[in-house]
Design a protein that fits this description.
Largest sheet: 6 strands, mixed
Structural class: alpha/beta
Order of helices and strands: EEHEEHHEHHEEHHEEEH
Radius of gyration: 16 Å
Shape: globular
Strand order of the largest sheet: 3-1-5-6-10-9
Number of strands: 10
């Protein structure tokens, strides 16, 4: 039986009050999965469970198309677990996928934060990409310390948010919020592939970093097994 990794995706589908839709960013799920799924069983959780809303729907991307047209993958994504369904002891890693929806329902989800804390304190890895690091903000370790304090990491940057036209739509700027929690933010070139590894915390800057993040997490996991 393969070891398990837990993917976290947003349940939030509204882009502020713009009337536009959002959700999890498709390639930020499929690209890491394409690397990790060969070696690990992957379960998916979302704050509300069920089928989460999807954004970044680009089927010209061959990895996206392969997963989107796979019936077993669609069945799994259509019935994501709720946090109450998750046993943290089963997982070697937790990975927070991005998409703008994560900015609304990740930062205050104490149940997801508790799951991540337990996986980490059991010796597992915590990973996140793009807006997924919003899920790192509420994590507290057993001693009450902020998880991101003093750790090197990255996320979708303030310049990227402004360039994307969403800086005045999202509830806060993620780079700033992480720095306010004491994180050591490591910004790469705008829209560039940037992955930061700090022990058992692995983060990627944007969608272009998702595949590299999957490879970095796989390498880290295999180095401890």
């Amino acid at each position: 039986m393969k070891d398990k990794i837990l993917f976290v995706v947003t349940s939030h589908g509204e882009l502020g009050d713009t009337g536009k839709k959002t959700g999890y960013f498709l390639s930020e799920v499929t690209h890491p999965w394409s690397v990790l799924g060969e070696y690990y069983d992957i379960d998916v959780v979302s704050p509300k469970g069920g089928r989460p809303p999807v954004d970044g729907f680009d089927l010209s991307d061959p990895i996206n198309a392969r997963f989107w047209n796979d019936a077993a993958w669609q069945e799994k994504m259509g019935s994501t677990m709720t946090p109450d369904d998750v046993d943290p002891s089963l997982y070697k890693a937790i990975f927070y996928a991005g998409g703008h929806g994560a900015m609304w329902d990740f930062p205050h989800n104490e149940k997801l934060a508790s799951i991540a804390s337990r996986i980490y304190e059991n010796g597992g890895f915590v990973a996140a990409v793009c807006h997924g690091p919003a899920g790192l903000l509420p994590i507290r370790l057993a001693d009450g310390e902020e998880f991101v304090k003093g750790r090197k990491l990255t996320s979708f940057t303030n310049p990227e948010e402004y360039a994307n036209g969403t800086a005045d739509i999202v509830p806060f700027l993620l780079e700033t919020a992480l720095e306010n929690e004491g994180a050591i933010f490591q910004e790469g070139p705008m829209w560039g592939d940037n992955v930061v590894v700090d022990g058992r915390l692995i983060t990627g800057q944007n969608p272009m970093s998702a595949l590299s993040l999957g490879k970095a997490l796989l390498k880290a996991l295999q180095n401890v097994e």
